[in-house]
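STRUCTURE REQUEST FORM
Protein name: Short-chain dehydrogenase/reductase SDR
Source organism: Fibrella aestuarina BUZ 2
Requested output: structure tokens
Priority: standard
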Amino acid sequence: MNIAQKVILISGASRGIGRATALLLAQNGAHVVATARNADELASLETEAATLGTGSLIGLAGDVASEADMGAVVQTALDRFGRIDVVINNAGFGIFKPVDELTVDEWDAVMATNVKGTFVLTKAALPTLKAQGSGHVVVVASDVAKRTFAGGALYTASKYAQEAFMGALRKEVRPHGIKVTGVYSGLVDSHFHAKGHGHETSKHYLQVEDMAESMLFIVSRPPHVVIDEFMVHPLTQEY
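Status: completed
Returned output:
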């Protein structure tokens, strides 16, 4: 799994899957440009990454739905390393209510991060990837990009939108030598859940480290290999 010297951008990197992934990639020799809203958590991530492996990690605070912020993230990567090899769209959150209890502000907030954010960061990096004739766009979606459940109209709509975005993007960029991978996870023990990380009810869920190892596998495939879709669940979850 050689990713030494690869330049990897990852959003939603301050906590959970994003943080674990950023650390594992840096530990394995990648140059990681990590972004999230929380500057203090990114500073802590930088400090921890500095003790690991041969790679590097820089944290840049910003809103994934902001074209200016994500443009700055991409430009920083180019200024520092001269290229971009992988973009991991990981930022996301959910609000779970019946449709008639959702507010328009809640709808807009989830869509801004999950859908608009994926578009904005990907778009910012695409000119560089096309000019290189290589690159890899990863979108951390969810298994609910392919199924629905009561109370999940907003979240599942955002994940179905990511799925459609990836499908069209894949057709556009493959002729340019760019890979697109959708990651569809089941239940993960993280801060994402209402009961929080480490709760007794989630002890059999996937761990954030499981997801980080999955991401490492995906982005370390040889140039001629693309994993279009990666579905992963805890054994205890019905699928």
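Reviewer notes: The beta strands are 7-11, 31-36, 56-61, 86-89, 135-140, 178-185, 188-189, 206-207, 229-232. The first strand starts at residue 7 and ends at 11.
Form closed.
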